[in-house]
Design goal:
Blueprint: E1 3-5, E2 10-13, E3 15-19, H1 24-35, E4 39-44, E5 63-67, E6 80-83, H2 90-93, H3 97-118, E7 121-127, H4 154-174, E8 178-183, E9 186-187, H5 198-208, E10 212-215, E11 221-223, E12 225-226, H6 227-238, E13 248-250, E14 255-257, H7 258-269, E15 275-278, H8 293-299, H9 307-323
Parallel strand pairs: 3-4, 3-6, 4-5, 6-7, 7-8, 8-13, 9-12, 10-15
Antiparallel strand pairs: 1-2, 11-14
Helix pairs in contact: 1-6, 3-4, 5-7, 5-9, 7-9
Bound molecules: nicotinamide-adenine-dinucleotide (NAD) and uridine-5'-diphosphate (2 copies).
């Protein structure tokens, strides 16, 4: 719980719950919260996350690992909640789509119920997928989206949309202090090597000398945010004034075609991999780029790490992972 710093006379240590804390983004967030002096409860059911991601934190006096599924109620005492628990890549969230929706919706209800009992701040890791295949470009937060409610991706997109609805209903109905971040494509060390996401796929394929799989003609675009920048944005959002709720876009506006990304990865790994075309998945958005004017204005935040620098760190991580050497100490 909150501690008074007697020397400076201000509260600076909080007890923070991170759901999905053993996942890719969650593990970096746990690390940064510990570094900032907070106590962290990392909750995860290890569906896509792994103990390896947080093994360097296990044993730390301010770190606690809790195996739990957010679709079940949780009774703990904390000062802040970051709700990240949810499989995030199509391969994983389509594996058990009903469970994906339950995780987003029941998980949000349970974590909001917890925040309501504790009267504590709660932040939701929402997604750019709430915009679906966007009809406006770049996407601003006031855009309501273009989402297919019955497609194979809907369990994730609509689950996350419903979670946003719940957050705003708990705000209106129970005066909760909520924060909603709409996260755009994020990459970096600790991405799951088999999650099918474009950065991990291309880096792993290039390092193994396997063909790089371009879905469609590769002219679709994405904007890639390095995980350290994203975590910085999440923590700044949590620290905003009580009346700032978001939703706020967090992502890197630098836009690249998928083909260009493949070329960069080949270039940076010195790989001899060829490019091969694969069918474009159903509902694959053509373009995605965040408008981050609101984040700049309200959080004083914008990404600092260029794609090339972030890719270098990501390639080094996957290189260690594939060689079977320790991945955590050097990241
Ligand atoms: P991830 O799969 O690495 O992390 C999700 C974590 O949640 C995993 O550790 C998983 O085991 C855990 N989890 C899943 N279901 C759970 C349940 N029912 N109970 C408890 N834990 C559960 O994915 P990530 O990329 O780190 O994503 C974290 C959050 O950020 C997700 O909510 C995701 O929707 C959101 N997000 C991520 C991106 C991105 O580009 N990585 C983009 C938009 C939004
Ligand atoms: N909940 C929880 N931890 C708490 C308080 C509530 O997990 O500390 C769960 C509880 O099981 C409930 C959900 O959060 O299903 C929503 O709680 P809320 O108080 O909003 O609704 P109610 O209990 O009235 O249905
Ligand atoms: N993609 C690709 N090859 C891959 C994996 C993905 O061309 O091996 C494409 C995919 O079709 C999409 C883009 O890369 O257009 C980003 O895919 P990802 O799953 O990483 O993120 P999302 O579609 O959720 O933005």
């Amino acid at each position: 719980m909150q501690r008074q710093n007697s020397q400076q006379g201000r509260i600076d240590r909080k007890s923070v719950l991170v759901t999905g804390g053993a996942g890719f983004i969650g593990s970096h967030l746990c690390e940064r919260l510990i570094e900032a002096g907070h106590e962290v409860i990392c909750l995860d059911n290890f569906f896509t996350g792994t103990k390896r991601n947080i093994e360097h934190l296990i044993g730390h006096s301010r770190f606690e690992l809790l195996r739990h599924d957010v679709t079940f109620p949780l009774y703990v005492e904390v000062d802040e909640i970051y709700n990240l628990a949810c499989p995030a890549s199509p391969i994983h969230y389509q594996h058990d789509p009903v469970q994906t929706t339950k995780t987003s919706v029941h998980g949000a209800i349970n974590m909001l119920g917890l925040a309501k009992r504790l009267r504590c701040r709660i932040l939701q890791a929402s997604t750019s997928e709430v915009y679906g295949d966007p009809a406006i470009h770049p996407q601003t937060e006031d855009y309501w989206g273009n989402v297919n409610p019955i497609g194979p991706w809907s369990c994730y997109d609509e689950g996350k949309r419903c979670a946003e609805t719940l957050f705003f209903d708990y705000l209106r109905q129970h005066r909760l202090e909520i924060k909603v971040a709409r996260i755009f494509n994020t990459y970096g060390p600790r991405m799951h090597p088999n999650d099918g996401r474009v950065v991990s796929n291309f880096v792993v394929q290039a390092l193994k000398g396997e063909p790089i799989t371009i879905y469609g003609d590769g002219s679709q675009t994405r904007s890639f945010c390095y995980v350290d920048d994203l975590v910085d944005g999440l923590m700044r959002l949590m620290g905003t004034a009580a009346d700032f709720t978001g939703p706020v876009n967090l992502g890197n506006p630098g836009e690249f075609t998928i083909r260009r990304l493949a070329e960069m990865v080949i270039d940076m790994t010195g790989s001899k991999s060829s490019l091969i075309a694969k069918p474009l998945p159903a509902d694959d958005p053509r373009q995605r780029q965040p408008d981050i004017a609101l984040a700049k204005r309200t959080l004083g935040w914008e990404p600092r790490i260029p794609l090339k620098d972030g890719l270098k760190l990501t390639i080094a991580y996957f290189d260690r992972l594939l060689r079977g050497t320790s991945v955590e100490t050097a990241s």
